[in-house]
């Protein structure tokens, strides 16, 4: 095998650093084969990121049975044993057809964790993804852990759990964890800056959480029927918050009340995203003033049978006096809905601080821009009232046709800000939901 030329002359620590930044384990192995002197370099790389379908680790397995899954995890254990350095970054992803293998897999994961601890326990990033939450994980104490991401598993904390003192990021999606353990995990991780919790309760284990972190900057929480209460008690550094209801099409008064109560507990944020039909819930609570809020994203639902769209929009804008950027995802249940809202929306408003002084960017996304009268009334509302508007961006899914009468009506509309630019742009489906 020929040597790799000048690159093989690099200092060993530089070569290891290069290999550590490769996202896939198979690329690390392939790169190690570039030169004879690199053959065993993969054993010195402190990062191990494995996906069952991408990294076969030997004979081909179709992962249709639990034995295939367990065989692959055993190979992972052997890889960890072969490593000659403590692992800092470990990711394990199982996306398989087999089901109900949790009872067989859990002991293998326990031995895997023991191996990681034997290697020094200096793990800083742990990411585990399984296809179903029946895989039980007895989470050990990794003293240096900074990032913990768990998807579709059942987490059990030890009785003497001491917390992760260096943990800054905790993300959990569809994780079965008791309310007591979740509160303990959060409470004992006092340096958290990012917390994401999606779908982690169940009918026998409703969640009730008080969040208090001096350093937290990002909070993302989905409220579903298994959440009893979530409140931010103290988070002076919180900058970004995203709150969603699990099923936006279902009108659930309790879910709406919980989310708005949670929103009311974060007046310190500078960016807020809501996946919530505010038209249904806006009258439930009185929002506080958000003095730092600069960016707001939320869906606006217009229903021909309901005139509350206008009231909900004004209700939000009134509580955000320094808003600079607004993203609206517009839904309409009927093309006649815009006609119903026309007289309500398109009128002067001089009593909203953000419209008078700060709102510079408005982005309106509509799935079907051909539903002209629905979108145009909202667009014209901001063209008329946003006095310092710089950019009005109207986005729609490609494949929708822009009707000439919409362009004509925009051209005839009053634009209060002389500096404003109006852009109409088509998006791909992947860009549509608050993307790009």
UniProtKB/TrEMBL annotation:
Protein name: FBD-associated F-box protein
Domain F-box/LRR-repeat protein 15/At3g58940/PEG3-like LRR: 135-327
InterPro entries associated with the record: F-box-like_dom_sf, F-box_dom, F-box_dom-containing, FBD, LRR_dom_sf, LRR_FXL15/At3g58940/PEG3-like
Domain (FBD): residue spans on this chain: 353-394
Species of origin: Rhynchospora pubera
Coiled coil: none
Signal sequence region: none
Residue intervals of the F-box domain: 7-41
SUPFAM superfamilies membership: F-box domain (SSF81383), RNI-like (SSF52047)
Classification of source organism: Eukaryota, Viridiplantae, Streptophyta, Embryophyta, Tracheophyta
